[in-house]
Write a structure and sequence with these properties.
single chain, about 290 residues, mainly alpha, globular
Amino acid sequence: WLAELYDATGRSVEALPHWRELARTNPKNVAIRTRYATSLVNQGQLAEGRQALLELAGEYPRDVSLWYLVSQVENRAGNADGAEQAARRIQDIDSSDPRGPLALAEARTARGDHRGAVDTLTPLLDALRDSPPESGAYARVAVELAAALEADEQRDRAIRVLEDARTRDERSVEVASALAAAYLRAKRLDAAERAYRALLGGDPDNPEWLGGLGWTYVQQGQAGLAREPLERAVAARPTDLTLADHLADALFQLKQYREAAALWDRVLAGTSAGLDVKAITEKRDRARQLAGRQ
């Protein structure tokens, strides 16, 4: 219970030693040993977590859940071959289990073979067309297929897949969130705004959706509307530099140049992974220049 509470409150570092001790004293409890392995992975101890999962899979070689976790960890470790081997094991155990093609598609995506992922997931989605919505299988595969299609530069088809999935399962938050983000990336801003507003109606404090709505407003030129949701998103995720960059864009539109420049300074002081440092530097410098004229 203590380990669960630590995990639930974001104190996973403190949870890990408890999972380790539980795994040591309960060697036949697969669920506890799995939690220990995933806790290791989540703490960045990929090699140790991978080894723990492989040992479990060796003891329980027909456990599909274990092999699916192995595949995910192999992908995370950059070992696409190992991920594909784990996916093949799932297919050998149960060819009807959707986790086999899902794991295979994830391995292909990790290699950059987005067309291969599309070819793997398309027949799986067709096969799941009559599955009950409450299983979540159709929604999960639809989201993965849409991501592969978009990576393969088939953005319109990706949106159609998600729209169809939403029609089939209107309760799937995963599909609705993916569709809102896809609309935003496709610059279908009115649709994105409606989608994010609907999502926030059910969870008004979700920082991902607040950020999405705010960025939609920025691109619509409605910085006055963008500021409040972006500020709330940044407050909830202060280390998310993309959200901070978007808030700075809103402040710049509002001609609050000093505040925008200060926020871009904060973005540039953080990690640069995934961000266009040159473009942000240029925006920061322009904000400073304009602030000097005020």
